[in-house]
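HUMAN: Spend a minute on the protein record below and explain its fold to me.
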Amino acid sequence: MRFGRAWQIVVASLVVGGPALAAAEDIAPQPAALVADQIPAIPQAIVDQTRPYMEYRTASFVDWDPKSRAMLISTRFAETRQLHRVAAPMAQREQLTFASEPVSSARYAPDGSALLFQKDSGGNEIHQIFALQNGQPKLLTDGESRNNLGPWSSSGKLLAFGSNKRTGLYNDIYLMNPAHPESARMLVASTGGGWFPIDFSPDDKQLLVFNYVSVTDNQLYLIDIAQGSLRKLTSSNVPVSYEGLQFAPDGRLWAASDDGSDVKRLGIVNLETSLFEPLVDEKVWDIANFDISQNGRWIAFEVNQAGRSLLKFYDTQNGDIQVVDALPTGVISGVKFAPWGELGLTLNSNRTGIDAYSVNPETLAVTRWTRSETGGLDAADNVAPELVEIESFDGEKMSGFLYRPDPARHKGKRPLIINIHGGPEGQATPRFLGRDNHLVNELGIAIFYPNVRGSTGFGKRFVSLDNGPWQRENSVLDIGAFLDHLRKDRRIDRKRIAVTGGSYGGYMTLAAMLRYGDKLKAGLEIVGISNFVTFLENTQAYRRDLRRSEYGDERNPDQRAKLQEISPLIRASEINIPLMVVTGANDPRVPASEADQIIAAVRANDRPAWHLLAENEGHGFRKKANGDYQFWASLIFWQKYLLDKE
């Protein structure tokens, strides 16, 4: 499938307001919740040509049904992701929830007697917890506060959850019998940070809770449930990070932690001394999520190798480690053992899509449970990314993933989009591109996903290299180093390079446009920060301390001055290449005002600044119709400002 010259003429006519606008039937309908400001109407030709790439689905493993041995997955049949049950590998998906908003997480009771899930409204992240009863959702929380679904007790009689209903700001820790939601009682009243319940001890006498102070400082506490007393397990003088915490059946607490190391190792936290004993060390790579089988023998864990996942099993009986080689190369997530011993997980790979799998720890046999639709296209035809490694301006080593168009189909030097992840404590990984496969496969655009300093997955030293306002722009200099490297690539058109990114990646997009505008053609930022001071003042209050630990404290005069100095809004008059901005009106993280002010400033200098606003979305578009339209609008933007050689 290729775009012909006729389609390009239609696009060119529309972006300059030409005669192609005359026929209404040639224009794609715009979703009612979207406001497209200065964005040309979308030609129906674009919709028709790109349709196969819009119709892909994904299926993510969520949980096991203890009663039927079915797999619970999250997938989309209509506009939003909902819960479905799959009775057996490759069986038909049975939809369980039918909400207009996506379901974000779910958990079966240990005996399968109840299924709980959470969802918000319009992307506002004010989640409510529901029970699925007789096929209908029953609200268990108050409908107004922000709630987070936590673990079931070992007996299955109680649920731990976080809620801000006491103060409207910070998460307190609660217990509830879901069969009687009025039984909810507070266990811990927090005074700040990010408090979450993690796991019950096997005898249900204690609850492990977690306070996320920063990406490198996670504090652990044990609650004596009967007494209501709280005991801290970690020392605030020595910041430590954890990736997964779980009690084994024998009562030992397992964790993946960077305690005493630059990278996370798998080991045991001594509940008496609070000392961490590492048992599995991958040396230069983080051990990420893990799960323990119900008989306590197996621990399945993921090794993060520069973004690629490697799945391994640790045998607690003899210390042996086995590697699962049969999974396709990609990213795994959500690992969880079934009561009968099978391990469920999600595999995300550009050449397979996103689907649910299981692995037998005894035989290492891999079983694919879902094969999601890809609009009639064969995912195996998508390109596999290549790992690009460089040294930055100061000799710091870093890497990223480059998706190159097939050279047999797309001759000569190819245009490039640099796509910067958010967080900033995120990580670019070799994932399924979804709609963006159209850019690579059909338009011949290369896409590069960098991991600049501050990214996770490369140890606690690397993730801290961008902390505070005085180190912040070093990550922007990393983009310059990647730019220099890619501009020397013989298959990249150095005259046609653009930048995009979401959230913190939106800030990086604006900062790169300012610093490297002479090397870039355009920039597209999504729900991004334009001014660190106004962002910190206007992001939801419960998030401010967490973000101050990363970016700096706007209440401190010296830090405030530096935050202003490095904010793109202050230098908006220097943005001299076209900009497109995508915004969610209900965004609790990066308020829509961040987009409004950068658009106004750029337009004041007579520079192009397209704006797409969704009135029913938050921190990114989650509804299919909105996501499709966003892609089509960006496609016109790239056609006009990146692909045209003028």
